[in-house]
Structures are given as C-alpha cells and as structure tokens.
Amino acid sequence: MVNSVINQLFKIEQAAKDMQSSIEQKKATLRKKYQEKEDSFDREIDQATQQQLKEIQEQLSQKNVKNRKEQNKYYEAEIEHLEKDYRQKKEDIVNDIVGHILKERGD
Which residues form a coiled coil (predicted)? Predict the structure, then answer.
C-alpha cells in the first residue's frame, strides 16, 4: 500500500513537472511571438516616422525655396526702385548744374 501511494505521488509529481515544462515552453513560445510582433510594430512605426519626417523635410525645403524666391523678387524690386530713384536724382542734379551754368553765362 505504501508503495502504491509512493507510486501515485511520483506519478502526480511527474505530471506536475511535465505540466510545468509544457507551460514554460508555451510561455517561451508566447514571449518569442510577442517579441516578434513588438519588433515588427517597432519597424513599422520607425518606417512611418521616417516617412513623415521625410515629407516634413520636403515641405520645409519647398517652403524655403518659395520664401527665397519671394525674397529675391522683393529685393530685385527694391534694387530697381533705388536705381530708378538714383537715375532720377542724378538727372535732376545734372539739370540743376546745367541750369546754373547756363544762368551764370546768361547773366
């Protein structure tokens, strides 16, 4: 009878060890599966983030080009305006000088 009880306890212990081993294997498999899913998710997020950053950089680059073109137009218009004023004032000064010279000769 004692041997029968010992055999039963041994079988129970062995079954418990087998269950524990099976559970550990399942846990390891699940860990691996979830780690792979997490890694895949991280890669997808990284790719999406990189794509968004690339798009933002392209938009900023286009805005910078547009701003530079607008600034160049503005500066060219200002330069043209200043040159026109310069030519007009130069002409006015030359006319004043010629007028004074002619007036002095006429006197």
Answer: 31-92
